[in-house]
Each structure stands twice: as C-alpha cells, then as structure tokens.
Design brief:
This protein has 213 residues and is α/β, with parallel strands linked by helices. The chain folds into 2 domains: 2-45 and 100-207, Ribosomal protein L4/L1 (Ribosomal Protein L4, Chain: A), CATH 3.40.1370; 48-96, no CATH class. Helices cover 32% and strands 15% of the residues. The longest helix is centred in the middle third of the chain and has 17 residues, at 103-119. The two termini are 21 Å apart.
Length: 213
C-alpha cells in the first residue's frame, strides 16, 4: 500500500511511502485489540484507595454501656462500623489492577488497529517534523496546511523532539508520541495518524519481530 508523502505546508513531494502489508493490511483481530486496550487502561489505574477496618481505628476497646437494661440499642466499642468515625466494613484497600498480555497478542493488536486506520484512509505521512523553537502557532499552521484541524490527531515521530512535544502540549486534540511507544489505545483513540517518514521503518522493525502470530 502506497501513501503520498506530504510536506509541512501541505504540498505533495515526489516520493511515496510504502506501508508494509504485514502491518497495515492484515485481517484485524478484534479480540486482540480488546485485550490490549483493556491491559493499557487497567495498567493506568493506581489502586490507592484505602480505608481503615475497626482494628486499625484509634479508640478504646471498652464497651460503651451495658448490654441490657438501658432501653437503648446494644453497642460494642467506639470503633464499631455503625458509629461515625468507626471502622469501615469491606472497604477498599490498595491493590494492583495491572493485567499481563502476551507480546504476540500486543503486536497483533497494534497491527490490527493500524490496519483499520489504513483501510479507512486515516494515515498521513509527512517528510519531517522539525521545530527550532516552541511555537504552538506554528503547529496549528501545520494542522491547517494538512487540513486536519478540529480532529483528534496522533503524531508519530522517529526520535524525541523537545520543541515539537511542547508546541503540541496545549492543543487538546493533538498527541505526540514516539514510534517506539506507539500503542493500541492511542491508535484507536485518534481520528488520524500522522507519521513522519523516518518513523515508519521503526514501527516496522518493532512489529515484525514477531511474525508468527
């Protein structure tokens, strides 16, 4: 599959990028996508919610008043769960929500997500993405030149560029990532994916390590 390579000003170059069919033109596996997205979202959960049970609450173990003869409901100590400031019954405690998924499944999920984007013509390739200064206005101009403003865009770069990352930081619908950090959730969450030309070989090298999926 061939895609024309564009410049930052939106004009076409004389070159085309060849998207590897083993990555961008496979039969998508929806179950693999579901597993990997579930893993990514679960691994973001910190699981820090915590409550104290009655044995962890400060207070005396003395019974508040005698069991019978007062006309009031029976009560134990002041740490009882039915009293304000008492322990919590079956409350949350810190836990690990992370999920493990096989490497081959994660690779298949990324290939499937990229194939969906390729089938829907939601992939753009530009020749380069270089900034010499932090300039959000310049980034917005590139979006306008490519005619992709007001959409959720994922920019994929081959190497870190401090100026590009900071220039896009205040744009709510734009995310910049590295080819080595590309994941299934980010691919599916974007309406369009913009690769710079040098990032495609890196994506291919990573995703073709496990060809026998």
């Amino acid at each position: 599959m061939e895609v024309k390579i564009l410049k930052q000003d939106g004009s076409e170059t004389s070159r085309t990028a060849i998207l590897n069919d083993e990555i961008f033109n496979i039969q998508p596996n929806d179950h693999a996508i579901w597993l990997d997205v579930k893993r990514i979202q679960a691994n973001k959960r910190r699981g820090l919610a915590s409550t104290k049970e009655r044995n962890q609450v400060k207070g005396s173990r003395r019974k508040l008043y005698r069991q019978k003869g007062t006309g009031r409901a029976r009560k134990g100590d002041i740490k009882s769960p039915i009293l304000r400031g008492g322990g919590v019954v079956f409350g949350p405690h810190p836990r690990d929500y992370s999920i493990k998924v096989n490497k081959k499944v994660k690779v298949l999920a990324r290939k499937s997500a990229l194939s969906y984007k390729a089938q829907n013509n939601q992939i753009i390739v530009i020749d380069d993405m270089q900034f010499d200064e932090v300039k959000t206005k310049k980034f917005k101009e590139i979006l306008a030149n490519l005619n992709i403003e007001n959409q959720k865009i994922l920019f994929v770069l081959d190497k870190p560029n401090y100026f590009v990352f900071l220039s896009a930081k205040n744009l709510q619908k734009v995310k910049v990532t590295l080819a080595s950090q590309l994941n299934t959730y980010d691919i599916l969450n974007a309406n369009l994916i913009v690769f710079n030309e040098a990032s495609l070989p890196i994506v291919e090298e990573i995703l073709l390590r496990f060809q026998k999926v």
